[in-house]
């Protein structure tokens, strides 16, 4: 019988069927819960446009302000704060109960967002409630990941920690996959109109069922054996925050983890998964449904590589895989996005003659003699791309037109271009799997058991929440700066300078200061990521 | 390698305040535009507020590097 109450399972334990059964349940319980937390966190982002019309109307300044807070504060401020609050709790009370609590908080707040009446019904109370619930979500996410990663790592035998924790690493990407899948599925079943009206609430409400299942599974699990042993011996930390960040020997490792690994990992991740989708939709103007389907396929093909790189990190070390992913991303991300632009550029394509359709629709503006003219042009290209251009113009009663008509472009790509785009996103997600697959094991091995939850959670959430989370905002801002009267659309590739710059700094720090050696025991106070000359 | 680790500490020490100065300048430029709203002020406030402690962390990292705290690391 495998003895998982022993701090380190021995070889006989690892090879026994009962050990395999127990470790499988440990991984499943941790991964399913974390997957649901990511799902909950992403659906808010994926439905941001609908949510803003329901709760944060732009013409109400107070609501727009609350919207900014909901988007920014939940991602950047509350996540690291959640890491501190729940990390401390996890190091004092235990891993199991802490990540049960974060799961309940996340699931409960997601469910409640799905039930809140809109701004039209309850006024400013609606965005305030959404903001509060979104902050709870951010707080819960800040506490969840460290607990799940620590829990699995502390059950794992020597030499398999990278492999076992890599299952946790798949959840962030699968959470996005699940959220996109549920949203697209619900939208196609209900139709766009009903979905926009009330159907968007379904993905939020569904979350509760998933959480109940996950809580049930997690409740049956035992506490981490390493933590239980520590607690039994009365050696747990009484003040994990002070020990983590107040002591030089640990603080220097927190800083090294952040600047030498997680900061670079965060920007590579957010560029590959979130900026890629944002770029396809807003810059390359690919249709809403198709850009998401491209993401889904790329994620589906790339996800197994989290486990492959996690396993490989047990064989050759974590450092070179993570830094390799960063280096590849730095070198190739610009050519990848240049290719996306080239593929979607109609100037590089031949239009099918005689297939162009133009339709004009005139609509009177209520209470005025002016009219809105909507001209829809549909162009079909030889490679199968269909481009829809909707130009909205105001026709004044005086005969004048609007100075600047609004033009909306939407492209549906042909098969071969669609496959090429899947491949280009797939490559980026492979980099994500390289930097993200081994990072849980890497972080766990950096810190001692008694302050592990706190110490690893903070750099993780600063690296991913702040550095990674700001990729779309800062990249868009940089593009704005490149706009000139001569070039009103700016340089669409300029947004990549931010993630590339951060990844370069992180790569240099990682190359020079990190050791490739892992801590075989995950239970000592001496850090193996620094070489000790004894 | 030890010397490189140590003296690169100066770069990290300077990069911390340098990046905050850069952010503050960008914020001032953006917020002085006539199109800027209270929402922009809030966004920049949050960004600078969250980056100041991180930049301070980078300075501490640089200081530790300069003092040889990471000298034992071997790639």
Rounded to an integer in angstroms, the radius of gyration calculated over CA atoms of chain A is 25 Å
Count of the separate structural domains of chain B: 1
* Number of discrete domains of chain A: 3
Overall body shape of chain B? elongated
* Oligomerization: heterodimer
Give the overall average pLDDT of chain B: 88
Strand content of chain B: under 5%
**With helices defined by DSSP (H or I, 4 residues minimum), what is the helix count of chain A?**
21
Q: What is the general shape of chain A?
A: globular
Low-confidence segments of chain B, given as residue ranges, are none
Count the strands of chain B? 0
Summarize the biggest pleated sheet of chain A: 4 strands, antiparallel
Commentary on this structure:
- The complex is a heterodimer of chains A (534) and B (75).
- With 534 residues, chain A is an alpha+beta fold.
- Chain A is built from 21 helices and 4 strands.
- In chain A, a hairpin with a 5-residue loop joins strand 2 (371-380) and strand 3.
- Chain A starts with 10 loop residues before the first helix and ends in a 21-residue tail after the last helix.
- Chain B is mainly alpha-helical and 75 residues long.
- Chain B has one domain (2-66).
- Helices cover 79% and strands 0% of the residues of chain B.
- Chain B is elongated, with a radius of gyration of 17 Å.
- In chain B, 23% of the residues are buried.
- Classes of the chains: A alpha+beta (534), B mainly alpha (75).
- The interface between A and B is medium-sized, with 36 and 30 residues.
Brief characterization of the structure:
The complex is a heterodimer of chains A (534) and B (75). Chain A is an alpha+beta fold.
Keywords:
heterodimer; A: 534 residues; alpha+beta; Growth Hormone, Chain: A; N-terminal domain of TfIIb; 3 domains; 4-stranded antiparallel β-sheet; 21 helices; 4 strands; globular; disordered N terminus; B: 75 residues; mainly alpha
